[in-house]
Design a protein that fits this description.
By secondary structure, this protein is of the alpha/beta class. The chain has helices at residues 20-31, 57-66, 69-73, 109-118, 167-172, 239-249, 255-262, 279-284, 297-300, 309-327, 331-336, 343-375, 380-393, 399-402, and strands spanning 4-5, 11-16, 37-40, 52-55, 81-86, 91-94, 105-108, 125-126, 131-136, 143-147, 151-160, 178-191, 201-207, 210-218, 221-228, 270-276, 288-289, 292-294.
Length: 408
């Protein structure tokens, strides 16, 4: 059966995925004056699930360019520092990767998603639209998004923000995302009705091979995560079982850590493997084909060891919209003469975006990949090589938060 084409001309911008990257991209394009922007999201509502995420200075610069920075600052306290605590050894040290001259706040994921979505014009997001493939128009080679309900959506520009299992990345010929096999992370939120009295500090607590991270969002809400090696590489999916298994793996940690996990919000708990795109794929990967590109995890899924996944996606959105705005300077051309938009300008804009982002995300991806290699129980030789590269190449551990993606 032939696919049903939605609309005679489709849309100027089709964004696949309504997560952080997709919503930020739609908002950035609207801020640049582009009106015909549509986000196709497979869920039937906003995907606001999930606990928290840390946004450092580089991410806040991008949020300010999107016009939502101040609104989000009201929802999270300013973190004053970071500390690495070695439980067994009874000692602690300041984390050198934390930039005290900058800005770091931990946001509840739903707050970020809702603020981005609410800033978009009504009708921008189309829910319940499961992308299954990307094809091209045989006449003009423009992209067509194929949905699971047998609808086809023509687009002038198609942007894949559909995560690590991206159908758009498949179209570009990018390799599948990999994951570390011996460890993963449990994440959750804990609410304290009468305030938690914890300092506004990002704390890492290490014991044996397990690590607990604790970050206050506000005076009543704390985001936490536990990086661990699940027995046999398996971990339960049921939230109650996740909490029970996690409690078993934090024995020997301070009482407040155990209590924090015991009182956690079950709906916020999840276990995820740690996924990434290999750094050499960032170097060689084809991130643009025709007028199709990707951003966020679809482009550069990376381990969370530097807390840059969300911030990097926000940067992507600003850089992409800026490059498109610089190349496609006439909005009248977009609105009134859809069929004769200069394809060369579109492709040049996307190439400019890819070129600007490639080295930035290579730096982030390589650094986090090497940390993951060290934690993934390698041979002593591999571990030594990874440590030496980190020491030599990444001497300035705060470089990633000092980055400025520039004006929109």
């Amino acid at each position: 059966m032939d696919s049903v084409i939605e609309g005679e001309n489709g849309h100027d911008f089709v964004i696949v995925g309504g997560g952080i990257g997709g919503l930020a991209t739609a908002l950035a394009l609207h801020r640049k004056g582009f009106k015909d922007v549509v986000v196709y999201e497979r869920s039937k509502r906003l995907r606001a699930e999930g606990p928290g995420l840390v946004i450092f200075s580089n991410g806040w610069r991008a949020l300010d360019q999107l016009g939502v920075g101040d609104q989000l600052r009201e929802k999270a306290i300013l973190l004053q520092g970071a500390e690495d605590v070695y439980v067994d050894q009874g000692k602690s040290q300041n984390l050198s990767s934390f930039d005290r001259s900058g800005e770091a706040r931990c946001l509840k994921r739903s707050d970020l998603i809702n603020v981005l979505a609410n800033a978009l014009p009504r009708g921008t997001i189309r829910f319940g639209c499961n992308a299954i493939a990307v094809k091209t128009n045989s006449q003009n080679m423009s992209p067509i998004l194929q949905l699971g309900d047998d609808k086809a959506i023509p687009a002038k520009i198609l942007i894949g923000c559909d995560g690590s299992n991206s159908k758009v990345a498949d179209f570009l010929g990018l390799k599948l995302i990999s994951s570390f096999k011996t460890f993963g992370a449990v994440r959750g939120l804990t609410k304290y009705p009468n305030k938690h009295l914890l300092p506004p500090t990002f704390v890492h607590m290490r014991r044996d091979k397990n690590l607990v991270g604790r970050i206050p969002i506000n005076d009543k809400l704390v985001f936490w995560y536990v990086e661990l090696s699940p027995p046999g590489g398996q971990f339960p999916n049921d939230p109650e079982l996740i909490r029970k298994a996690t409690l078993g793996m934090v024995k020997g940690f301070p009482f407040e850590v155990v209590e924090m996990i015991e009182k956690s919000d079950l709906a916020s708990l999840s276990f995820t493997d740690i996924r990434y795109r290999h750094p050499w794929e960032i170097v060689a990967g084809n991130f643009r084909r025709g007028s199709v590109t990707v951003l966020g995890d679809a482009m550069h899924a990376m381990p969370p060891f530097r807390g840059q996944g969300a911030s990097a996606a926000l940067e992507d959105a600003v850089v992409l919209a800026r490059n498109l705005g610089q190349r496609i300077c006439s909005l009248d051309q977009f609105e009134g003469r859809r069929n004769i938009i200069d394809c060369q300008k579109i492709r040049a804009a996307l190439d400019g975006y890819v070129k600007e982002r490639r080295m930035r995300i290579l730096h982030l991806s390589l650094q986090t990949y090497l940390i993951g290699v060290i934690l993934d129980k390698p041979s002593l030789i591999v571990k030594f090589i990874a440590i030496m590269i980190l020491v030599i190449v990444f001497r300035d551990e705060t470089r990633h938060v000092k980055y400025d993606c520039g004006k929109l």
